[in-house]
Amino acid sequence: MIPLLSNSIYAGGLSPFFFDPTPLAFTLSGVLVLWSIFGYKLLDVMPPAYKRLFDSMKNGVMVLDPLERIMDYNPAAEELLGLNNTSIGKNANQELKMWSDISPMVKTDGKKELKLVHSGTKWIEVQFTPIYQRRLFSGWIYVFEDISDRKNADELIIKSEKKYRELADLLPQTVFETDVNADLTFMNIYAFEMFGYSQEDIENGLNILELIVEEERSLSRDKIKDVLSGQVSGDEYTAQRSDKSRFPIILYSNPIIQNKIHEGFRGIIIDISDLKNAEDRIVASLKEKEVLIQEINHRVKNNMQIISSLLSLQANHTSSDEAAEILKESRGRVKSMAMIHEKLYHNSNLSQLNMAEYLNNLVRDILRSYSSVSSRVTSNVDVEDIYLNINTAIPMGLMVNELVSNSIKHAFPEGEGNINIKLEYDGEKYILTVSDNGIGLPEDVDPFESSSLRLKLVNSLSIQLEGDLSVIRDGETTFVLKFKELD
């Protein structure tokens, strides 16, 4: 419209200018349009948007001029600080009781935490920053945030930590925590007494490896890596105090994990000095008892050898062949028991006897004692890797002695034959088998009802062993005994 009007005036000769003002009219028209746009945006739209944003903020906001007078505040600040409509234009020192605590000393950003009690206890965090326009100081913006929930949570954490520390201080073991580098961050009172360190040492940097002797730290480092990777550990170490004195410990630990991140580990340390001393006393006592038992076995063996020698002398000086034979058999029985005590005397294990070694020696000795009639009798001893206690070995050895002696005397009238002795374990019971390829038992002889002293002893010994005895006659005579180890 402006360019058209200007052109009409110039064409009618009514223009006061000596030039055509139409181009200038176009420029002026553009400026007016631009001004209307900016005016609409800035003066009509932006202030309401700013006001809505300002009023909807959850944190309280307050604007001050350079003289610290309140120029504006939002509803959150009004509620939090107790301001009202008359506060605008007044000095902040008049309206805010806390002003002396939050008044800026210099024109820089600042932050403070305050406790308000005017409308119930509240904690607020105050942040303030100076405003500059064209490098000129124009006032302050204050932001107030209600941090009561956070403070209450912090107080609960502090109370919980206090309770945890008090409980830890009551324990008669070391309780500790470390960071991811194994530097100690907490030790209870007992730990300071145990190791001779102080809280100051922790604050100055005390690594848990310093509680372990130097020669065991390499192993400790590997264990720490395992714990930090999520494993639980419980191991014995030699610890050292601040004065370098040593003592044995057990250290139990598990990782500290927050939000799936390993932040260190915590655990307990138990002084096992008393336990180790008691263990040493027990070991010494057991060693003493072992020596005593060995001495008893040695003396029993010697006494039985004396008895065996006396029986042998008596047999050699008797005129009765029958009496001499009885004395010789008794000597064999005594010797079978003496051999057990001899083996136990030389054995490091005083409660278990190697049956393979014992039975081989026993059968060899029996054949030697009957050498006059058994020079062509052979034996085969097949024994698994079996160990039996003395309560089981003695009656079983006596049974083998009776059965082998009986075979030598009665099974081989031609003086030639073979005797087999086998001992095995089927997973539930031990199986002793003694057989010979001699003439066999007479048909009219019942081994369980026989008047023979040897067979009576065999039956009696099988009962003593709580075993099941059977006899097989199939060309050879075989005695089979199934039994369990006696207590």
Structural commentary:
With 487 residues, the chain is of the alpha+beta class. It has five domains: 2-53, no CATH class; 57-146, Beta-Lactamase (2-Layer Sandwich); 151-271, 2-Layer Sandwich (Beta-Lactamase), CATH 3.30.450; 273-350; 351-487, 2-Layer Sandwich (Heat Shock Protein 90). The chain has helices spanning 2-11, 22-56, 75-81, 92-95, 99-102, 148-170, 189-195, 199-205, 217-228, 273-316, 321-346, 355-369, 390-410, 453-464; strands spanning 60-64, 70-73, 110-116, 122-133, 136-146, 174-178, 184-187, 233-240, 246-258, 261-271, 353-354, 376-383, 387-388, 416-425, 430-436, 468-473, 477-483. Strands 2-1-5-4-3 form a five-stranded antiparallel beta sheet. Strand 14 and strand 15 (430-436) form a beta hairpin. It is rod-shaped. Mean pLDDT is 81; it is low at 29-46.
In short:
With 487 residues, this protein is an alpha+beta fold.
CATH architecture field of the largest domain: 2-Layer Sandwich
| Sheet with the most strands, sense and barrel status | 5 strands, antiparallel
Distance between the termini: 126 Å
CATH topology heading of the largest domain: Heat Shock Protein 90
In CATH terms, the superfamily of the largest domain is Histidine kinase-like ATPase, C-terminal domain
Fraction of helical residues: 40-55%
